Task: structure prediction
Amino acid sequence: MWPGWRGAGILLSCTCSAGSAFSFFRAEPRENRSAEGAAVLRKGLSLVTTVSVVTAPIRIEVQHHLPSIVWSHATAITESQRQVSDVWWSVSSQFYDQSFNGMGDEGWRQKEVEAFREVEGLGPEDDDLVTSAINKMLSFLGDPFTRYLPPAKFETITNYATGKATAGIGVQLLEDPRTKNVRVMAVSKGSPAESSGIKIDDTILGIDGESVEGMTSDYVSKKCRGSPGEKVEVKIMRIDGRAKAIEKTITVIRQTIQQVEVEASTYASNSGKKIGLIKVPSFTTETEKQLVEALRTISSDGNADSVVFDL
Result:
């Protein structure tokens, strides 16, 4: 698909060996169009649309749903621009708010054009700039949960969600909105972090002598990961019982970290009722199965009066 174009039908494109491009458009009734074919056609109206590939336009004219085609020489898009286009198309077809945060089709399309121009001339070594441009485009949707992850970061999250083991220190990190620093949200049982004395709510100030103050949790997590058996120096700040900030550097040996499974236990309350407790430390593709097993464990100890889920 050509960047910047959302037709009410199907747009097919081809680049010839001589470097020229041609396209043809098959108009479809509004009610039959696919999710990719957004609403820019209205029945009974004529439409003239210009599709631009970098600098060379391809002009498609539709009169009463009868297309005519004009072709011209086109400049090939870069890999960075293809990334922008792929993300834009994916979001366009799946985003829950089809008004695109009130921008409408034209406004949302213009954000793609702006990002497309912003990454022009960027190469493989400019991944951070491309990611920034894409996330800037997505920010106009007003949805903090819609964001672009570069391949390496996506792979890390996928490995975590599927329960694949990684080598690290065994902590979950969170960006503190007040201090703009990263603090420890959870410490895995039996992990190198636990055995080395890292605790929940510790603020991470540095990794191996490099300051990470003001950095993202993704960046700090990446610095904590490595090969099993490697040492990593973690500088933390901890607030003691007298509200005094204490800084210290802790040496941790990286190990292969297995995802912590759902835990089940029972206990008696002060009133004598039997309470089931299920702890869900994280959500992965195995969580559902582990949760079922946890409920069975509690049931095998006798019917509980209530069950508490610790998320």
